[in-house]
Each structure stands twice: as C-alpha cells, then as structure tokens.
Amino acid sequence: MMKERMKLSLPPEVKKYIQSYMKEHHLSFTGDAISCICQEHEEAQKRKDDSIKKS
C-alpha cells in the first residue's frame, strides 16, 4: 500500500484520543492509528447503512 505524507493540525482532545488509541492498539505511528480509526469508522457506516436498508 502506498502512503502519502500529510501535515495537519488537530485540536488537543483529538491528539489525546489518537495517542490513547495508539497505546491501546500497540501502534507506533500516528498515521497507522488514523488509518485504523478511519477503517473502523467506514465499517461502522457500512453496518449502519446495511441496517437501515434491512428496516
């Protein structure tokens, strides 16, 4: 998988959340944590969309 470098600014509470996530999931890199969080969010959205379609 190809990766791209990004420079970004985050509110302190978001930075703390990412750091906590990194510790919990034993990740060394911020980019890996953000990627995992985004993937989890995408999967949650798909489950939500699927449950709406079934209703």
Structure description:
The chain has helices spanning 12-24, 30-54. By secondary structure, it is mainly α. The longest helix has 25 residues, at 30-54. The chain starts with 11 loop residues before the first helix and ends with a helix. The model has no long low-confidence stretch (mean pLDDT 94).
Largest sheet: none
What fraction of residues sit in β-strands? Answer: under 5%
Structural class: mainly alpha
Q: Give me the strand/helix succession.
A: HH
How many strands in all?
0
Please, what is the average pLDDT?
A: 94
**Rg, nearest Å:** 14 Å
The rounded distance between the terminal residues' Cα atoms is: 36 Å
Helical stretch tally: 2
| Global outline | elongated
Helix content: 55-70%
Instruction: Outline the low-pLDDT stretches.
Output: none
